[in-house]
Design a protein that fits this description.
With 791 residues, this protein is an alpha+beta fold. It contains 16 helices and 44 strands.
């Protein structure tokens, strides 16, 4: 807790340091290292005699295996950890037999250390009855290598035996002060390992197809990058990577993994491609720092990146410059509404990196920026490290996703259905840690929209977050955390609900599935909702487990008038389950594809389109089988794939809300247009936010409304809404409706002006010199009585 006495600003006494909180960075005691063992994954860590080792079951109910080898590579868990290894290391071996990133990384680490796990024995801790936060402690007896795994198989939908992460903490007996100790493991065997000391730069060459990994060793350190085509240099043409050309061709501030990933020279030839990025905040507007900047700031002669570039590029025959254009990785700059370029401390954390692929043979140069007169490097310049890798390596395109500010970065994944949708498009975008299709070849969003409204579509919704909520107090926990009355749910039923903080602001919206008396599943939009429920269970002492199953349950949505006809052809249910054709709105059934021997699925009559529709859940390993069955059954009904662009169109038209647009933690369910999820009269039990929501309902400030716009110009999220000069609201989402043949929008308006028929103006440009006339109407704009999804 913050001690306000320590932040006293009175003039008496010596000056005190400014108080700065870093909730986005874990604070560990000196000498303590933390490693996340991903669900179904493993980590490898070197240990020394006297090192204290702790493993923690983060979510509860997760087994953990520890295997150790001595310094020579001989597996001897008992001798290294001083505890009996009495179990077969089946979990570790099963993980290493897989083809995931974690398995490949661990196999490579063991190979470098000459460790063979063929006859390995393991220490096994935790299990189905372990509680969130349970820990097991060990002390290393001898130097060696520790392998920690969080094993688990395919989740059984009824048993809800999902796989979750484990944390590993190592408290060093002797502090490791070498810079190398701070480096993450290589992504593969490096071709070059280059340490760029603080305030210096180095040039290096790479061949076409090779990879360049630029690592921020200690965090909050900028590095300028520049590259030249070797063939052009040999021809006497010195053409550097050009940030202006790159921005113009991409339509972005800087390259990102995915389609807009390449950086170009002045002749518009690509030089590099961005493959992975764990930071996501870089600069492509300013030059590398130069002597003029420091001279003007009153620091003549200060070391600078431009002079450092000139010194190391000279041997390659590249002429000196007074200021070098560059891609300035980890440099945190933006342009504000007043057209001012501003900067602040970098977002990068220790070990953050950007991975590039050379398009042609290159001379590259990277710096460790020397600026110590402002916040560009957090006031403290440190090292940068560069690794290069062979063109034979395969690295997936990815950005880092963090479920919470202090969470470990998770690289963008492909859903179990990715390969199926990739048959029809290469236009994928990152969404909530996964690659999802934006639009499809030949069709495009408007045709996909019409297919949803008139025929049937299939879309990938696997990034939805799933949590298994189980235990004798599971119902009590959900009743307290959700706004809806969970006690009214019978097994096989689903309810749409909001989840709120104490002040009434929304955490998330989503659906609760009741599988049995003490077994529930929460499906929402973000990871915070699951963390929040786990925190409440711990705070209240409830015997309830909240465990993530997102990676165990991927799902497609089959939506549109023919969705029932398609699915009833392929979904088999046992006699004690509701048949697909009898499934009512917000109900679910458990079945299999085709027959008794088919792959297991859960099918719910839910969706996000405003049409009759279903969601089909399965394990990722079965995803292609499920998709192919749906696709084949849908051919007579002209089933089409649907991407994110068309999905946004159908959801806006149907008045379905989206996080970050219609709601946030500053918005209550009434303001988000889902006041029906807060039954203050019929739910007489207390729940989180109840008193605040009661007060907000009695004293509303804003209301979500529909807009019809008398203009063909599109409006979008954040556009201001005026009556005369004052602003009285803002657009949350907008679209051009093919069905209604007009532009429509959802908007949040001050209740004083939220009456139906009120004429308003939507501000464009600066909000005043250009306006679009609009009128407040009821929403949803399409099928307001929800007859189609109920049909």
């Amino acid at each position: 807790m913050l001690d306000l006495a320590k932040t006293d600003t009175s003039p008496s006494g010596p000056p005190r340091p400014s108080t700065i909180l870093w909730p986005g960075i874990r604070s560990l005691p000196k000498g303590v290292e933390r490693y996340l063992v991903e669900a179904g994954g493993s980590v490898v860590v070197a240990v020394e005699p006297g090192d204290e080792i702790a493993v923690v079951d983060v979510e509860g109910g997760q087994a953990c295996e520890l295997v150790a080898a001595d310094a020579g590579g001989k597996v001897d868990t008992t001798a290294t950890l001083g505890a009996a290894a009495d179990s077969e290391a089946d979990g570790v071996k099963e993980i290493l037999a897989g083809d995931g990133f974690s398995a490949g990384r661990t196999r490579a680490a063991l190979k470098r250390r000459n460790i063979d796990l063929g006859t390995a024995k393991a220490i096994r801790v935790f299990g189905t009855s372990s509680r969130p936060g349970d820990r097991a402690d060990f002390v290393a007896v001898q130097a060696g290598t520790l392998i920690v795994a969080a094993p688990g198989g395919v989740m059984d939908f009824d048993r809800q035996n999902t796989v979750t992460p484990v944390e590993l903490f190592v408290k060093r007996a002797v502090l490791r002060l070498t810079p190398e100790a701070q480096l993450p493991d290589p992504l593969a065997d490096p071709l070059q390992d280059i340490r760029i000391g603080a305030r210096t730069a180095q040039a290096y060459t790479v061949k076409a197809g090779e990879y360049v990994q630029i690592i921020d060793v200690s965090g909050r350190q900028c590095t300028d990058f520049q590259a030249f085509s070797i063939p052009k240099l040999e021809a006497g043409r010195e053409l550097a990577l050009d940030a202006t050309i790159t921005r113009a061709l991409l339509g972005l501030a800087n390259p990102i993994p995915g389609i807009p990933a390449k950086a170009f020279d002045l002749e518009m030839d690509p030089l590099i491609e961005t493959i992975q990025d764990t930071c996501g905040r870089h600069d492509a507007f300013l030059t590398a720092c130069n002597s003029r900047y420091y001279d003007d700031m009153g620091y003549p002669g200060h070391v600078n990146c431009t002079d450092n570039f000139n010194a190391v590029l000279g041997p390659h025959g590249i002429a000196h410059r007074r200021g070098w254009e560059a891609l300035n990785y980890f440099y945190n700059t933006r342009v504000d509404d007043q057209n001012q370029i501003y900067f602040d401390e970098p977002w990068s954390r220790p070990g953050d990196y950007i991975l590039l692929r050379a398009v042609t043979d290159l001379v590259c140069v990277s710096s460790a920026c020397p600026c110590d007169i402002d916040a560009a490097n957090g006031w403290n310049p440190t090292d940068i490290h560069v690794r290069t890798y062979s063109e034979k390596e395969l690295f997936s395109k990815a950005v880092a996703f963090r479920m919470t500010p202090d969470a470990d970065p998770q690289m963008t994944k492909e859903t179990g259905f990715h390969a199926c949708f990739a048959r029809f498009t290469s236009d994928f975008t990152e969404y909530n840690g996964y690659w999802l299709a934006n639009r499809f070849n030949n069709d495009g969003p408007i045709e996909e929209y019409w297919a949803c409204r008139e025929k049937a579509v299939v879309m990938d919704l696997s990034p939805l977050r799933k949590f298994e909520v189980t235990g004798p107090d599971a119902e009590n926990l959900l009743q307290y955390c959700m706004t809806r009355n969970i006690r009214k749910l019978s097994p096989g039923q689903v309810v749409y609900t909001a989840m709120c903080y104490e002040h009434g602001g929304m955490i998330d919206d989503g659906t609760v599935y009741r599988l049995d008396q003490d077994n529930f599943r929460w499906v929402g939009g973000n990871d915070v909702s699951g963390l929040w429920m786990r925190e409440q269970a711990d705070k209240l002492g409830l015997k309830a487990w909240v465990r993530s199953s997102t990676d165990q349950m991927h799902n497609i949505a089959v939506q549109g008038p023919h969705s029932r006809d398609i699915l009833k052809k392929i979904i088999w249910t046992s006699p004690n389950r509701t048949p697909l054709e009898d499934l009512e709105w917000f109900r679910f059934t458990v079945g299999r594809i085709d027959d008794f021997h088919g792959v297991p699925v859960v099918v719910s009559r839910t969706g996000y389109s405003g049409e009759l529709g279903y969601e089909v859940f399965c394990h990722p390993r079965d995803a292609e089988t499920v998709f192919d069955a749906v696709w084949e059954a849908g051919q007579e009904y002209e089933l089409s794939p649907l991407g994110l662009e068309a999905l946004d169109m159908v959801r806006v038209e149907s008045g379905l809300i989206f996080a970050g647009y219609e709601f946030s933690d500053q918005t209550d369910p009434f303001e988000a247009g889902i006041g029906f999820t807060v039954p203050l009269k019929s739910k007489d039990e207390d729940f989180i936010g109840r008193e605040a929501l009661k007060r907000r309902k009695e004293n509303p400030a804003r209301k979500l409304v529909g807009l019809e716009i008398a203009s063909n110009e599109l409006v979008g999220n954040g556009d201001c809404i005026h009556i005369g000069r004052p602003q009285i609201g803002e657009v949350t989402s907008g679209m051009r409706s093919p069905k209604l043949k007009k532009n429509i929008a959802l908007a949040r308006i001050d209740v004083a002006h939220a009456g139906l028929g009120t004429e308003v103006e939507i501000g464009k440009l600066d909000g005043h010199i250009k306006r679009l006339p609009a009128k407040i109407v009821a929403f949803p704009h399409y099928d307001p009585e929800k007859k189609r999804p109920r049909s």
